[in-house]
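Researcher: Quick test of sequence recovery. Tokens follow.
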């Protein structure tokens, strides 16, 4: 049900993003930099993190070293939610995230404490950024969404 709020049936109206209009670009970047630190900290503990539009996780992979050595490694991946992929007709690389352990959600309290923002502001900023992101998908625009 939480995912459904990111399935847009019409173009995004700026009134749906009041928090993003109130915050400066620097403040928005601060929120996302901290969210990335939280995601990284969870991945290092082998936990997947669900952010509303998909899940970050580490998956086993093989790395070729030199001529003939292959080493098992773990690589970070982002798997968009299957509803999102289907709804927006996204073509994504196939990744299989181990579903044994349920992913943890973003911890808005942790992120807020990290950057001295109220957790409600963090949550609204992240939610509206994700709305803006799927709005670009709806409008069939190119968008680059990077995680540091």
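Model:
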């Amino acid at each position: 049900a939480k995912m459904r709020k990111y399935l847009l049936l019409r173009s995004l109206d700026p009134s749906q993003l009041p928090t993003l209009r109130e915050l400066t670009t620097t403040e928005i970047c601060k929120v996302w930099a901290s969210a990335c630190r939280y995601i990284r900290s969870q991945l290092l503990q082998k936990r997947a993190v669900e952010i509303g539009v998909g899940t970050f996780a580490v998956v086993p992979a093989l790395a070729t070293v030199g001529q003939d050595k292959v080493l098992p490694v773990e690589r970070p991946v982002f798997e968009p939610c299957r509803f999102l992929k289907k709804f927006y007709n996204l073509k994504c690389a196939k990744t299989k995230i181990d579903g044994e352990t349920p992913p943890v959600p973003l911890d808005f309290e942790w992120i807020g404490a990290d950057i001295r923002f109220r957790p409600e502001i963090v949550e609204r900023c992240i939610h509206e950024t994700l709305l803006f992101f799927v709005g670009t998908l709806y409008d069939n625009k190119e968008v680059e969404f990077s995680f540091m």
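The mean pLDDT is 89.
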